[in-house]
Amino acid sequence: MRTRSQSRNSNRQQQQVNPTFVEPFNLVEPIENQAPPVVTMADNRTMAQLLEAPTEGYEDAIVVPEITADNFELKHGLLTLVQNKQFFGHDKEDPHAHIRYFNKITSTMKFPNVPSTSVKLMLFPFSLEGAARIWLEKEPPRSILTWDDLVSKFINKFFPPSKTTNLQNEITRFQQRFDETFYEEWDRFNNLLRACPHHVFLELHQLDTFYNALNSNDQDSLNSAASGNFLDKMPRDCLRIIESKSKVRNSRNKLVVAKVSASSSTPGISPDVAKLKDMMKALILDKKNQSQAPATVKAVEKSCVTCEGAHSYRNCPTTDGNVYRDNIQEYVSQAATANFNQRNTGYRAPIANQIRPLGFPPVQQN
Q1: Are 187 and 176 in contact (CB under 8 A)?
Q2: How far apart are the C-alpha atoms of 200 and 11, rounded to whole Å?
């Protein structure tokens, strides 16, 4: 019977004689090198327990480092300040402005032996609402370990590259608006720069863009303040001149753009304005004439039906004190009816049959 050592020696001799000899591979691993079998425990849970909803996976995305300071507590007033200006994730909201406001609020409170970044990580979820809060809740658990990680993910989520490109184009095409003062234009330009902190425009390009966006009056004003050509100055001197000029808010150096009409009597005024002024002048003149010469009211002439005098039949002197005066109105009514029949039918009642007021003699017929 050959031993294991003898078989190994014979294999070595064969390798020396035949170099292409390959030692057979032992497919059976020794027992001492085998891993112990895994013993699985029997799942003795009931059907109701197996169907229960899991209670794991509720960890927050933000990992707040352990705070070892004694008597540490977030004040309710600080939470109120943070929640007074929450970020909702709308398109018109600026995430950079929200981070600046949040840093300003959290810097007002100092806690002994507590890092400020830990306080920020604890408070930041309270500053979000709406779509912004939903975004944070969907982040993987324990995926945000530092304050820088949180700021980076927040900015990249709500300030996509497309928004950066739009703001950069708006800065490049910046122009002074109609009827905009120098101070208003400089303030609007700085707002664009603050809205996109990563605009990558150097100070030289910023000053050149702003100067070329000015109207001729404001450019001449800057050249006068620079005692020559504004662009011949150093960038820091140009910035100092612009800042000094922008502080004078009462200086209303506006660019007045008006259409000059050839038919207008007043130069520099648009036709619509001139027409409106003429209408106002005519209205004021007409009102003035009406106040100076009031309209006369024609007096009502009175005519007596009895004597055709310029008075009422009740005041007729021929019937004053006569008992038949009250029958005059009835007579007038009947006489009007007779005249109407005569005009329309051609029939004329005999004079004897015509009704006469009592007390008057009958008319003699010829």
Answers
A1: no
A2: 74
